[in-house]
Design a protein that fits this description.
By secondary structure, the protein is an alpha+beta fold. The protein has four helices and six strands. The protein has one domain: RRM (RNA recognition motif) domain (Alpha-Beta Plaits), CATH 3.30.70. The strands form two sheets. A four-stranded antiparallel beta sheet has the order 1-2-6-3. Strands 4-5 form a two-stranded antiparallel sheet. The chain starts with a helix and ends with a helix.
């Protein structure tokens, strides 16, 4: 897989912002379902020119959703997606996400 296919989007939530501001820089990304730890590590290192110390990958289950239709309530779920938390070496930052 190419590096731009592995990383789908950065996750910019309050929880991920707190992890990014600490001494150990941890960035959170939504990644492709087919990607593994080695793919994510290589893609982050190639795209952002940083040194990756650690990478944790997890599958996030979809949430239940309800919709009203002509025949009554329709029950469904959003899709599952994969999330990666990447820890960078000391002194490295990703300028595109930091906004500097």
């Amino acid at each position: 897989m190419r590096a731009d296919e592995v990383i789908v989007a950065p996750i910019l939530s309050e929880k991920s912002n707190f992890a990014r501001e600490g001494e150990s820089k941890k960035y959170t990304f939504e990644v492709s379902q087919r990607a593994n730890k080695h793919d994510v590590t290589a893609a982050v290192a190639e795209l952002f020119d940083v040194t990756v110390e650690k990478c944790n990958v997890m599958v996030v289950k979809g949430k239940p959703k309800y919709s009203r239709g002509k025949g009554g309530a329709i029950k469904g779920t959003t899709g599952n997606w994969k999330k990666a938390i990447v820890t960078l070496a000391k002194g490295d930052t990703i300028q595109a996400i930091e906004g500097v």
